[in-house]
Amino acid sequence: MRGGGWRGAMMGLAVASAALTFLAVERATVTADNPTAYAMDMAVVGLGLLTLWVAFSRLVRHVRDLGRLRDALAGGQLRGRDAAWLTERRDEIGQIAHLLSHPGPRLERSPSTRADKSLSAVLAMTDDPVLIVEDNGRVERITPAAVRLLDGTVAVGSDIGDALVPSDVSRAIERARGAGEAVTAVLRRADGVELSARVADLGLNSGMVIAFPQRGQGGALAVASRRSVPLKAAGHPLPLGDDEPLAATPLVSLWVATAGSVLGEGPVIAVGTMRLVGSRVFRTVSLSVLIDPVGVVAPEATARHGIDGARVAGQRPFLAAWPTLAETLRHCVVVGVGVDTALAALARACGHAGLPPPSTPSLDLGRVAAALDPALANRPLAAVAAAFGVSVADTAPDDPFAPVFLQAALAAALIPRLAERGVVTLRQARELAGGDAAPETAAAT
């Protein structure tokens, strides 16, 4: 911040101050015998020096604020006290902060106008059902054939989960990312009809393409009846070790709700997951699964997470839901606040169902946050997330699965903070958090 412009301004102020001082000495000599003239000259000189002092102090403060803004934006997002400091500013610094932290739609990855028009023209000419879906799950582009195929349940700007079963889409995009190329998948519509599709990943934070290939001269779509087709997930191509860079390690936020009156006890009635890599959270790659415990949900449990017996009655049992859930945890480091309690609840449920327990590395975000700021020890998820600039306002009101996103966003916020401390691997993060108590009010409820 203090480059040539800063040095030039300081030199100019110094020269002006020296000139005024020299002028004051000269005038004092000339008007020494005239008190009135002397007083007027000194007042003018004093006013000039005061003006220079005010200009100097404002310039110093401006440069200092620019430096603080630079440091606040170094992590890519305004957080904590820096965000509060900039909220009320209406000067140039506040406007710059607003523009940088709230960019226009698709500012970072918008294609050129020509490329955008070319893509629109290509999609307008094709008769195939094709969708381009943003990373947050919103439909960016869709062909008329896709609208017809999905019975008009999807449009530009709508959520792909309104037209297709989210778990099917999540598994397909996971396979495409793991394979590094387009994969074939079976995606179910909301009414249960299954569609043969090709799914391609467009890269981190860039969404995906879903195409439904046609068969035969008559253009009959590859639509299956209401049958069950298992999807085989591709394994992650990279080894998952404690010494791999944390910013490049596949992570999954895990949240588990149980039916018991005690935190983390009783049958599992809901599981939520969300994938992230480094500071990038993939809302599309998420699961929100309700499970019928075939029993009573304690009122204390409903008070904790908002899910009652009527909401889970008739849902899949744990034995039927576990294969999909296990797939989302596979080849990932499981993260969450109180994540050990969540994994223990899943292990007990697996034991009751005669299944092997999950065996996956984990990292407790509550312990990590407490290691960075001891005042956050044993604090609830919302308070810990807010301390790192993650707001509950980013989630839907009264959504019991809101902790899934909060934990994922918290993990994304913690990774650059850990890097500032020289903590760049999973092993180092575990060692940092090893001695701190962790709140257990989020990952398992």
Strand and helix layout:
Blueprint: H1 4-30, H2 35-73, H3 80-87, H4 92-101, H5 113-125, E1 130-133, E2 139-142, H6 144-149, H7 166-179, E3 183-188, E4 194-201, E5 208-211, E6 214-215, E7 220-221, E8 223-224, E9 250-258, E10 268-277, E11 280-290, H8 299-305, H9 309-312, H10 318-329, E12 333-336, H11 339-352, E13 362-364, H12 365-372, H13 381-387, H14 402-420, H15 426-433
Parallel strand pairs: 9-12, 12-13
Antiparallel strand pairs: 1-2, 1-5, 3-4, 4-5, 4-8, 6-7, 9-10, 10-11
Helix pairs in contact: 1-2, 2-4, 12-14, 12-15, 13-14
Query: Level of helix content?
Result: 40-55%
User: How are helices and strands ordered from N to C?
Assistant: HHHHHEEHHEEEEEEEEEHHHEHEHHHH
Strand content: 15-25%
| Gyration radius, rounded | 30 Å
Termini separation comes to 48 Å
